Amino acid sequence: MNVIYVVGIGPGGESQMTLQARQVLEECDVVVGYTVYVDLLKRILPDKEYLATPMRQEEKRCRMVFEEARKGRKVAMACSGDAGVYGMAGLMMELEREYPDCQVEAIPGVTAALAGGALLGAPLVHDFAVVSLSDLLTPWEKIEKRLRCAATADFSICIYNPSSRKRADYLRRACDILLEEMEGERVCGLACQVGRQGERCETLTLKELRERHVDMFTTVFIGNSQTKRMGEKMVTPRGYQILGQEGQREDGTILPAAAGMPL
């Protein structure tokens, strides 16, 4: 059986690649991926053999992996972030049925919601939803419904693929949908070029976010109704009762300081 690895390489920085992902890539003969991700890996593992395809050639890229594996070579499909979060793990496993002599194994990675969230502070501590604004594979009507449902349910929301040259107004359109359910002062955040040169983050309001121009290398965070801006950080409380040093509640009840419990 030829084992194929679908590897999440993290957001782009070598330090944010998991040890397991690094080990698997080092053991492989060939690494296949989208051109941008292959270029990132070439700087980290320059001695590997790489095969790449541009955007919108995902099926071709996947079949290249299976064909290389059938030659007896150890092959990895590299994906940004996590292979199972808008990555290639799903398509690889769908195609696996056509290659009974191959077995696909997913290697998890750090997705942008986690890396970008850490950069901003702690925006996803409570329940949250992740929505991509790319309508290449998902109709905009379905994206709109998912945004509206997440807003109605008071989830914190993480938005992937917020804009591109062909979708320059999509983030504005998404904000307009959210503003039907949220106040304009809702705390939001931007995490840009996470794990790469030019990394930065910013907290702002939903009203300000609507006017902002971003690119595909930006991850957008929309807080829930409890999310706070604490200095430059974006923090979503989970509901813990924060007790004083002596554990005094607002009603005057005294508890040991260690007795703080989640609501």
Care to describe what's here?
The chain is of the alpha/beta class. The protein has 2 domains: 2-110, Cobalt-precorrin-4 Transmethylase, domain 1 (3-Layer(aba) Sandwich), CATH 3.40.1010; 113-235, Methyltransferase, Cobalt-precorrin-4 Transmethylase, Domain 2, CATH 3.30.950.10. The chain has 8 helices and 13 strands. It has a 5-stranded parallel β-sheet, sandwiched between helices. Strands 7-8-11-9-10 form a 5-stranded mixed β-sheet, with helices on both faces. A hairpin with a 2-residue loop joins strand 12 (228-230) and strand 13 (233-235).
Core attributes:
about 260 residues, alpha/beta, Cobalt-precorrin-4 Transmethylase, domain 1, Methyltransferase, Cobalt-precorrin-4 Transmethylase, Domain 2, five-stranded parallel sheet, 8 helices, 13 strands, disordered C terminus
What is the element string, with H for helices and E for strands?
A: EHEHEHEHEHEEHEHEEHEEE
**CATH fold-level name of the largest domain:** Methyltransferase, Cobalt-precorrin-4 Transmethylase, Domain 2
End-to-end C-alpha gap: 50 Å
Structural class: alpha/beta
The proportion of strand residues reads: 15-25%
User: Major sheet: order of its strands?
Assistant: 3-2-4-1-5
Largest sheet composition: 5 strands, parallel
Stretches with pLDDT under 50, minimum 5 residues: 257-261
CATH superfamily label of the largest domain: Tetrapyrrole methylase, C-terminal domain
Q: How many β-strand runs?
A: 13
Radius of gyration: 21 Å
The CATH architecture category of the largest domain equals 2-Layer Sandwich
Task: Domain count, please report it.
Answer: 2
What is the number of helices?
A: 8
Look at the structure and give the mean pLDDT: 92
